[in-house]
Amino acid sequence: MLGCSSEDLETVSETVNSSHSSMSSDSCTSFSRLSFDALELLPHPRPLFSPENVTLKPHRSSESSWQAIRSMVLKRNGSEGLGGVEGTSLSFRDFSLVRQIGSGDIGKVYLCRLRNEDVDTTRSYYAMKVVDREVLALKKKTQRAATEKKILNMLDHPFLPSLYAQFEASHFSCVVMEYCSGGDLHSLRHTQPRKRFSLSAARFYAAEVLVALEYLHMLGIIYRDLKPENVLVRSDGHIMLTDFDLSLCSDAIPAVQSHSLSSSSSPDLPLSSPAVPRPPSSHFSCLPSQLFRSKKIQSFSATKRLFVAEPVTARSCSFVGTHEYVAPEVASGRSHGNAVDWWALGIFIYEMVYGCTPFAGVSNEVTLRNIVKKPLKFPTVSTISSRETQARDLISKLLDKDPENRFGSKRGAADIKTHPFFNGLNFALIRSATPPVIPQQKTTSSRQFGGPASSFDFF
C-alpha cells in the first residue's frame, strides 16, 4: 500500500549509480482524492515521452492492445492535423477506470480501458498504475518510482511488462501497462490440490521466471523482489514479472565463457570489446575464419560455450525485499549483489513444490534469524521421484547461504539452465509451450501489482 510514514528515517546510498532511497513504515494514506472526472477540469498536462510514439516493440506487434493504443493516437493526430504518431501522446482523458485491482507500497493499480474505443472492436483492457507524487515525497520514495519507470521503459520481453503510455495528471503520475487476467501464482497455487503445484508445473513456471531474470540481469537489473505474488499470469497462461520499484540498476558486461572450464581458469571474453573478436563456431559458419585471428580464441570454440551477462560487480547495502524471500546476506545486514535473485528463485521453487517457504517463522524477526542460521530441510517422505530429487538438488544449490558459492552467482542463468531439473526443456521455445493452467477469460477478480503486508523496504 501507499501512504505516509510516522517519521522520516536515515537515508543511505546505493553503491551502484549513486541512487538514493529511504525507509518508511506501513502506509496510512489512500487514493481517496483520485477522481479522473474531476481532473477533466484541469488544463491538458504537458505530454511526457510515451511508448505509443516510438517503434513498436517486436514481441507485441500483433496484439490488439497495442493496435488499439496506436489507432487511438493516429486518430487523435488526424483530428488535430498532425501526421504520424509522433505528434501527441495519450493522457488521462483517453482512459476510463473500471475498478481497482491491486495496490503496492508506492501506488495503486486500476483496470482501465480506452474511453472512445470503437464499439465494433473487441475492447482492450489495461492496467494503470497511479502514484501520488506528494505522498512519495513525504515517504522519500520518489527515487523508487523513478527507478521503476526507468526500468519499464527499458523492457521488451514476453515475460515482462509492456509499457503502453505514461502521463501526469495533477499530482498523480500514471503508467499504463498490459493487464494480466489470470491473477498471480500465489493465488493460483491455492487453487491446486494440497495448495502446491505439480513438479512439471513448478518446472514450467520456474523456467519462465528464470528466462525473465536472465533478461533483467543482462540489462544490469537486479530484481530483488521475486515472490509468487509478483509473478502474474497472462490470459494465455504464461507469466509476467511485475513490480520493479525495489530493483537495483547496475551494469552487466556480456561475455562468452567455456562451460567445461571454471571462470578462474578461463577468462571472460567480452563480446562488446573491439579488441577481442567473437570466437568462431559452426553456428557462425557464414563468417570467414580470417576474422578470428587469435588461435587461443579459435581453440576456445572447441569447448561448449555459454553466453553470460551477469551483473556480478553490483553491490548494495539496502535492506529490501519480502522477509521470507530475502537472502542471508540481506537478513544479516551485509552488502548484497546479483546472488539475491538466485536465492529468491530457490525459495520460489520450494514454495511451488511444497506449498510453503522453508524458513518462515512465527514473526518476521524469527524468519530472518532462520534464514541466516537454520539449515535447509525438506519434508520427510518415504520415497521421492527422480524429478523431485533433481528439484531438491537445484533448490539446495540455490539456497547456499554463502553468496560466493551460490548456484548462479558467477554465471547466472547460463549455469542454472544446465541443471538436470530442466533436462528436456527447450528454453528458446518455452514461449510456445503449453502452460499448465490456462485462465478463464474474465476481468472481474484479478490482482495486479500488489504486495502482501509482510513486504518491507528498509534502506
TrEMBL record:
Annotated TM spans: none
Record's keyword annotation contains Electron transport: no
PROSITE patterns referenced in this protein's UniProt entry, alphabetically: PROTEIN_KINASE_DOM (PS50011), PROTEIN_KINASE_ST (PS00108)
Keyword terms: ATP-binding, Auxin signaling pathway, Developmental protein, Kinase, Nucleotide-binding, Serine/threonine-protein kinase, Transferase
Family of this protein: Belongs to the protein kinase superfamily. AGC Ser/Thr protein kinase family.
Stated name of the protein: non-specific serine/threonine protein kinase
Organism: Ambrosia artemisiifolia (Common ragweed)
Gene Ontology biological process: auxin-activated signaling pathway; cotyledon development
Region annotation (Disordered) ranges: 438-459
Catalytic activity: L-threonyl-[protein] + ATP = O-phospho-L-threonyl-[protein] + ADP + H(+); L-seryl-[protein] + ATP = O-phospho-L-seryl-[protein] + ADP + H(+)
Residue span(s) of domain Protein kinase: 95-422
Its EC number(s): 2.7.11.1
Source organism, top-level taxon: Eukaryota
SUPFAM superfamilies attached to this UniProt entry: Protein kinase-like (PK-like)
Enzyme class: transferase
Pfam families hit by this protein: Pkinase
